[in-house]
Amino acid sequence: MTTPRLRLLTATRxxxxxxxxxxxxxxxxxxxxxxxxxxxxxxxxxxxxxNLNRAEEAAAQLVELQASTAGRRISEALSLTQDGVAEVxxxxxxxxxxxxxxxxxxxxxxxxxxxxxxxxxxxxxxxGNVLCSSEPLPPPGLYSDAPWLDAAAEEAAIVGxxxxxxxxxxxxxxxxxxxxxxxxxxxxxxxxxxxQLETNLLSTQPVRFELTDDPTRRSAxxxxxSAAVEPIGWTVEAEIDRDQALALAQRDNxxxxxxxxxxxxxxxxxxxxxxxGLARPIQRLSAAVRNGPLQSEITIVxxxxxxxxxxxxxxxxxxxxxxxxxxxxQAEGDLARSLESYRSLFAAxxxxxxVYDNETLRFLxxxxxxxxTYGYSREEFLGMTIRDIRPAExxxxxxxxxxHAPPRERSGPWRHLLxxxxxxxxxxxxxxxxxxxxxxRFVMAEDVTQRERTRRLAERTERMxxxxxxxxxxxxxxxxxxxxxxxxxxxSAEELAAAAVSDPDRxxxxxxxxxxxxxAGRRAAELTAxxxxxxxxxxxxxxxxxxNVVAREAEDLLHRTIGEQVDLSVVLxxxxxxxxxxxxxxxxxxxxxxxNARDAMPAGGRLVIETSNVDVDEDQLQTRPELQxxxxxxxxVSDTGIGMDxxxxxxAFEPFFTTKAQGSGTGLGLATVYGIVSRASGFVHLxxxxxxxxxxxxxxxxxxxSIPDRPLTPTASRTTGTExxxxxxxxxxxxxxxERILRDxxxxxxxASSGAAAVEVVRAYTEEIHxxxxxxxxxxxxxxxxxxxxxxxxxxxxxxxxxxxxxPLLLAGGTLPFGAPLVDKPFSxxxxxxxxxxxxxxxxxxxxxxx
Length: 851
Fold this sequence. Notes:
With 851 residues, the chain is α+β, with helices and mostly antiparallel strands. The protein has 22 helices and 25 strands.
């Protein structure tokens, strides 16, 4: 037993030690670690900044060098061009061009110079007429108003920027006078210079160039160098993306930071070992506390100040505990009765419940419903935190909400993870509670997965319907433009084909150019057809279809197009049920999905196309609420490509959304698939994970109908006639083309830009009008209303409608009478004249009733 004198002496010594040793051993060690981390961090930060500065200086030197080289090449090219123009101007044979009304077989060739790869060279008289050119001669007087013409006739010069009237492009004008007669001019296209410089001036960094007469202030994200182009006073700028230029330095900095972290880990481990060595006295004290009776005294041990003071505090605490033990036993009895009531309500609740610690987020208690729902045992739950039942990407938001949650709230839906990896949506009701000496939070979770899935499906359907209406409107306007382009190209091709027979060297290349315009127009028409298919309005023959036949035909095409690096497998159900739809559209579904899969496997992979019969029962409806029980044909296309993340999957079926690089896709492939399958009363599901490939599944209702043989598609032929036709079209260009087609076919043609104008034309025309060819959707008066009004005055009048909208959309909107004859835009001359002839030779129609 210690005496009062000894206790006083001990307390005095403790006070003295507290005066000199205010901090604990752990605090000292942590302070040393903090000082080392701070010093090391400052040194690493300084070195990182030096690395970035050196990288930026190197990039700045590179762009200055590239700009200087580019400026020198442009200047040399301009000088060479100026010398070449002067040499042509000095040729005495040019005098013959100015003495005859027609150039005697003049031929010039534009070869370009340096980065100026595009342009042309002309010989121009003082009135602005092009007498000779490296391109087809433009109209007379084309350059008569050119501001540089008079000065160019006096002395050699380089002028720019200027607009070339022949092409509308921005050019540099390099000229040399032909004394007293005119000028030799080379037009150098400015826009081609930047691309040529980027191609020819290679460097260790991707450098972009810009030749400009008005340098603008560059973004802070770029490192820019510039050089003057002396002959024209312009500036050529070279620029590098700052992030790319600093990428290598950033990697070096990351390695430096990792080295610092490794050193800190080693130092932390060493400090831990030292701390353990010093903590042994504390362990001896702990053993004395555990083994001695509650009322016994604890001998003061030697060691660090913290241990001595702790021993004194524990001794005092043990005395206090002894006096309070009886009161605590009574309180524990009351608490046990309260806990029994709590357990009966908590454990039997049908909803998952738990309590977690506000500080550590560790589970403190869970009920049996939570154990059954989430798949973890009670012991597993109590070793976890609420972070473990949330997806990794949701954890930051979880921590933030946990720190600032009100005392009581209902929130959600939140995503929770089950033990098997399944994700469910839950709504949370929670409130703060005191639980087993912890400040915790009580949670009740309600599973709303099915409700949220149904809501998201409804939102996506509504969004896709809205986008479908937008796509249909775009296709209508685009079809008008395509009709003008394609038919004018056909007109030009007919004329050029005849001219190419007599002068193939002159006109055959031009004919090929026009044919390329037609090819591009046809491709645009195919794109419009995809838009119409997405809008669920494409006019197509519907009937029973064998998807196995469609898949075999698509397989033959895909083997030739997807490349040898893709392993294609087609697995077909032997006795596949029929589906109702259009075979060509279902083929488009397979091809679109296969092409998307090929693009997702740039290095090769495996592509599998499968068909099978599926009976959807009530159990399957739990995960697919949009389906109805019954028989379905399943078309599944799977690949081993790069896959998609959550954001890409949410927008995959929207038109014009694509994960491909710019210029590599239109974003209509999956949108078209969605439109075709939905129109066939089917359902589309996409499953994809980054790096694990993509599987698209289409479920189509099975049909008991037999599958007929496919009819051959008749070929339209161009026909003629002499009847009078009234053309009503609000697009002036398309109306002009249509009138020309019909006049060339021998018809008498009247034109009107609106329904009201058409009525006035009919009233003023005294002879018979045999056919009304009218657009369906026009401002002021619809085509159907115009046809009804004119047909009341003349029941013999035949009507042919034309539209760029899909027929089902027109029928559903009431803008087109059911059964009305229609020609789709864009139409060719042969198709239009064939349809006109069919209508004129058909029996007179009965009166229309458009309600």
